[in-house]
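To close the chapter, one final illustration. This time we ask the reader to focus less on the individual chains and more on the assembly as a whole: which components sit near each other, and how the overall shape emerges from the parts.
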Amino acid sequence: MSGRSLSLYAVLYLVFIYAPILLLPVFSFNDNIFVTFPLKGFTTDWYAEMAANAPLGKALRSSLIIVGPVALISTSLGLMAALALGRSPIRFKAVIIGLLMLPLVVPTLVLGVSLLTLLRGVLGVQLSLATVAAGHVLLCLPYSVVILLARLDGFDRSLEEASLDLGQSAFATFRRITLPLMMPAIVASLLLCSVVSFDEFLLAFFLSGADATLPLYIWGSLRFPAKLPSTLALGTCLLVFSVCIVVLAEWVRRRGAPGSTAATGL
Amino acid sequence: MNTNRMNRRQLLARASALGLVSVGAGGLLRPARAQGTGLTVMDWTGYEVPELFQPYIEKHGAAPDITIFSDLEEAWQKIAGGFRPDIMHADHWQIPARRDTGMFEPWDTARLPNFADLMPDLVNLPTLQHEGNQYGIPADWGINSVCYRTDLITVEEESWNTLWDPAFTGKIAQTGQMDNMVGSAALALGIENPFVNDPEIMKAIEAKMTEQRALLRFYWTDPTQLSQAMATGEVAIAFAWPSVYKELKAQGVPVKYMRPKEGVMGWAQGMLLMKDRDGNTQKAYDFMNAWIAASTGRWLIENYGYGHANVKAVDGVAPEILADLMLEDPTKTLQSSFFIRDMPQDVQTAYVAMVERIKAGG
Amino acid sequence: MIGLWHRSPAFRGWVLIAPTLLILTVMLVIPLGMLVAQSFWTQTGLTIDRTPGLQNYALLVAPEGAIYRTLLVKSLWISFASAFVVLLFAFPVAYFIAFHVKRSKLTWILLVTVPFWISYLLRIFSWKIVLGFGGALNSGLIYLGLIDAPIEALMYNQAAVILTLAHSWSAFAVLPIYVSLQKIEPQVLEAAFDLGDSALQRLRRVILPLAMPGLLAAFLLVFVPTMGDYITPSLVGGTDGVMVGNAIATLFGKQNDAPLGAALAVATMGAVAVLVGLILVAARASGLWRNRS
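The assembled structure is written out below.
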């Protein structure tokens, strides 16, 4: 595959990914409740409406609160599980991997109902953002393990063995050899888990108490046609925020020593 | 190879990681303290706004905890799973089937000062009142009809059968809700009450609904989808909530809300007092009373285009708004609309299965 | 205990995986057990009859259950097609980032992932804007004079569902493929090139086998969850694009038949497991996947 055609392809791919989403900002400034062409006129009213919408802000905050812990906990657990599965001679690996993939297979609705019955009916736990986070951790585990295992699978162990032979403790080996080599997968896992949690809607409904998460709120606002443009305004803000992170990451990288890849090891 | 020798530091590190995770997990799952407001209400999205219970806020200083839902079935499932609100807001026709489950208890209407102002036709609905007990307090209600684009199609005679007119093939939209699908088919056929366990009637309704499917652009799942489609002309005629009509009109789209010769459809909601309550009973009554106050009704009419059970709610609302929503004489509208009187469980089950089958293409 | 820790790598492995296993057992195995048990019960109205029986499964294979079988097969097809499309398009991008991007790898990874921080619902909605009646494609084509009236066939069918799903899930494919490609050393590729392999041979003999874990992971991460999705089908699928997830949701919800819903869910999970198993076997058999772990 030539580098040129591949670059072109990659750019086109990005266009495909972003083009539909870029319509959101377009219509968030459009002076029309109905999100259709032709465009009517420019307005910032929807942003004002969004900013004034307190429940929307609360829902956004709720979603953001759980994203971090969920990504961190899932990735940590996933890392430990991947190490155990990929390195240690434990038995029944196939069964454990099957078990790990189950949260993906079970329809989320079914998972939601069952978890609710378990948490509320059996364990008597109050519903809150914490229960939502617990549900999301369960959902993110397969993603995390799959990515981390994919990295470990077929990994050349000689580096680690050499390090141990040279007298490094197993932990130091982990810290200095394994961890940096796993970094791309760890970052990927953190990213994916954040996406999964931030997006997730069904478990959030069943396991949440009074605090709605953002997807729940957006789903509910579909009952009110007039609220659509301000929801688009929110989407635009999220998009801008995400793009800023990308720009920031690139800027940080460039500030580092020339030729060095960022601390993520990518 | 020194894989077997792990020093204490590593052991400590791993143990602490494990401990951290377990504590974190345990902390997450530890039962949280009950919310401080003393009242949990489960309600539709859009109903969490303070204007709908302003008197309650004035008395207690803060809004109650409101858990929102946009799908009533999911809400029931959540309650079945163990979630315990104090007050629940539900379609009136879903109440009879659940009465015997002991999920909710009758209201003591003497504790509701505003109860006297509620329209008797709503209060006495068999779905809300049973054997002298008031299980559901009517709050919001409204009418549903057919909305159409006057510039795209011509309607000779305003009737529910326009939704079955082959001339409009591909431009019709129908709601996906069972009660309204069956109701509109019944009105088109002239059946007075389809919600009975009569195989003949059910067969006729099923045939009518199946006949409609080929003519539809889609079964709409939410009003946004419908209003978008009608605004662009993708759909020219549809079963629509009054809010859709209101929205389109406000945007200058030429639409009309039909007065079908068979009559409009009516809907009502009832608010329920749940039995296994965690919250404060007096607060529950205060909340309910605030909801049925005339001031709340006025806001509801003006902002959401829904009717309100309080007779005085229409006082002070602009006549054009009332005319649009057929609320100039609410009692008359109530009495002439097609209302679901009762919904036995087996009838509900049969129709839901039928409707889902038709919608899925079966 | 400490002695065991020092002596046995297996013990260490178990300790590492213990918290995960605990969570899985409590939050997954138990609820799933409840689900399977539920599938043998019956529900009339709101009362559940707990006498076990095979009536729900019998219904699923009987003529009355035809609609469910149709939905299941349709969903398998839609999910499979979406996963396949996603993989096909994601692989070159992952390849590009792994091998042709020298310094801005993180930036590219972020670029590919970041659109997905917008809510899932908004992503679906953006496709409604693209494919809709008054949407971008239709308006653009009308503006260019290529069509007179909007094309209705763009929306409310299976194709719309596949397209929307493929877009929504693409990050879940790029990342795993990238991660496994990334550990292939360039020297290995160069060696293959030096040895005279054509690009296609290089792909088949070197790259695909080494990337297979990532490819399989990507396939799993897209195919499996989309089977249970009912939001996308209900927003863009119309009558044609209804999937089995919709049926399960309605059985649990409006139809108040949780046991049948549970049975359908179990059947769906079984079908998914079988299909995934077949694919894994095919991957092994084709010689493209040599599992070294």
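Chain A touches chain C through 106 residues (CB under 8 Å). Chain A has one domain: 15-255. With these observations in hand, you are ready for the problems at the end of the chapter.
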